[in-house]
Design a protein that fits this description.
about 375 residues; alpha+beta; rod-shaped; about 55% helix; seven-stranded mixed β-sheet
Length: about 375
C-alpha cells in the first residue's frame, strides 16, 4: 500500500517550469490530432518507435502487455474513426467525443468507460467590466479500457502534458493501469475548479466591497449592475461544469467496477469530497451575487429618491420668488406698496428671508 500513499503527491506536486497551458507537442509520424501516444508497462513508458502511432502501440500492448495512453486534441471525424475502429469504441461515445459540448457524465459501453469532464480556466483581467470574460471552458473526454486509455481534449486550455509527466515520475501508480490515469485526470480537473473558485472569490469580494463601501468609486449609487450580472453569468457557466460531475464521481468512488482498480477507487472519494467543496463555493457565489445585485439596485433606488428630494426642495425654494415676481408682474395700477420708495427692497428682503427659512428647514430635515 506504500506505493498508493503517494498518489496525491504524484498528481499534484509543484508545477514544472516547462509546463505549458497549451499542449502542442505532436509527432510527425502520428495523425495531426494525436498530441502524444505511449505504451506503459509495469508503470514505465516504453521507448519504442513502434509506440508512436495508436496502431503500433496497441500491437505492442497485445504482444507484450501493459496499456496504451493516447492523447488527442480536437480530432476530426475521419481522424478519430481510425482510432475508434482500432479500439472498438462505441459509435455513440465516438460521436460525443468528436462533436463535444457535452455535459459531464460517466457511461459504460461494453468493456469501456466513457467519461466527460468540463475543464475551467480563469481568465486574468485587470478590471472586471460588464463584458469581462472570467472563465473559459473546455472538455476532456476519456475512454478507459482494459489495456488502453484515450483522452480527447477540446478547447485551448486544459493540457494534460504536466499530468502525464508527473504520473510517469511515479511508475508504481501507473502500474495500476488505466484507472490510475482516470483518477489523475479527475483530480487534475477538480483541483483546477478549486483554483478558479479562489480566483472568482477575489472578484466577488471586490464587487461586494464596492457595493457596501460608499467611500469607494461608485459611492452610495453602487456599481455598474452589468458587472455583477456578468459575474453571475460566469458563475452559472462554472456551475454547469461542476454540478453534473457529482454523480459520476459518486459512481467511481462507491460502485465496484471491473475497469477501476480497487486500490485506486478509494481515492476517487477524495476527488468527490473536493468536488463537493467546489459545489458549496459555487452555490454560495450564486446566492451572494443575488444579494449583492439586490443591494446594488436598492442603493440605486435610494440615490434616485435622494435626487428627487433635492430637486423638489430647490423647486420649493424657487417657487417663492417666482410667485412674488408673478404677482408684481401683473401691472395693475392699485397694487400695495407699488409706488412706495422702500417697497422694492422690502419685497426682495421678504423673498430672500422666506427662501432662507425654507432652505434651513429642508436642510435640517435632511432633504438638502
Amino acid at each position: 500500500m506504500s506505493m498508493i500513499r503517494d498518489l496525491r503527491a504524484a498528481v499534484r506536486p509543484a508545477p514544472r517550469k516547462d509546463d505549458s497551458p497549451y499542449d502542442t507537442t505532436r509527432d510527425p509520424a502520428t495523425p495531426s490530432a494525436v498530441v502524444d501516444c505511449a505504451v506503459y508497462r509495469d508503470g514505465r513508458r516504453v521507448e519504442s518507435a513502434e509506440c508512436l502511432t495508436p496502431h503500433g502501440a496497441m500491437l505492442q500492448v497485445r504482444r507484450d502487455g501493459g496499456f496504451a495512453w493516447i492523447g488527442l486534441h480536437e480530432p476530426t471525424e475521419a481522424e478519430f474513426a481510425v482510432i475508434a475502429a482500432e479500439f472498438g469504441l462505441h459509435p455513440l461515445a465516438v460521436e460525443d467525443a468528436v462533436h463535444a459540448h457535452q455535459r459531464p457524465k460517466l457511461e459504460r459501453y461494453d468493456d469501456t468507460l466513457f467519461t466527460v469532464f468540463k475543464t475551467i480556466h480563469y481568465v486574468e483581467h485587470a478590471e472586471l467590466t460588464a463584458t469581462s470574460e472570467v472563465v473559459e471552458t473546455g472538455e476532456v473526454m476519456c475512454f478507459t479500457g482494459r489495456d488502453f486509455f484515450i483522452t480527447v481534449r477540446h478547447g485551448g486550455q486544459g493540457s494534460l502534458r504536466g499530468l502525464r509527466h508527473r504520473l510517469q515520475d511515479e511508475p508504481e501508480l501507473l502500474a495500476k493501469g488505466p484507472s490510475a490515469v482516470l483518477h489523475g485526470i479527475a483530480d487534475h480537473v477538480v483541483d483546477g475548479y478549486l483554483a478558479v473558485a479562489d480566483a472568482m472569490q477575489d472578484d466577488i469580494d471586490e464587487v461586494e466591497t464596492e457595493v457596501f463601501s460608499p467611500g469607494r468609486k461608485g459611492g452610495s449609487r453602487g456599481v455598474d449592475a452589468g458587472r455583477i450580472y456578468q459575474l453571475k453569468r460566469e458563475v452559472l457557466e462554472f456551475k454547469r461544469a461542476v454540478a453534473p460531475l457529482a454523480r459520476p464521481m459518486q459512481l467511481l468512488s462507491e460502485r465496484p467496477m471491473r475497469l477501476v482498480d480497487p486500490d485506486i477507487q478509494k481515492y476517487f472519494r477524495d476527488v468527490a469530497d473536493h468536488l463537493a467543496r467546489v459545489q458549496e463555493h459555487v452555490v454560495g457565489f450564486d446566492e451572494l451575487l443575488n444579494s449583492i445585485l439586490q443591494a446594488n439596485l436598492a442603493q440605486a433606488s435610494v440615490a434616485q429618491n435622494e435626487d428627487m428630494r433635492k430637486i423638489t426642495s430647490w423647486a420649493a425654494i424657487i417657487a417663492v420668488p417666482t410667485m412674488v415676481c408673478g404677482v408684481y408682474g401683473m401691472n395693475f395700477d392699485h397694487m400695495p406698496e407699488l409706488r412706495w420708495t422702500y417697497g422694492y427692497p422690502m419685497v426682495l428682503g421678504i423673498t430672500v428671508g422666506i427662501c432662507f427659512t425654507i432652505h434651513r428647514t429642508l436642510k435640517r430635515n435632511g432633504w438638502l
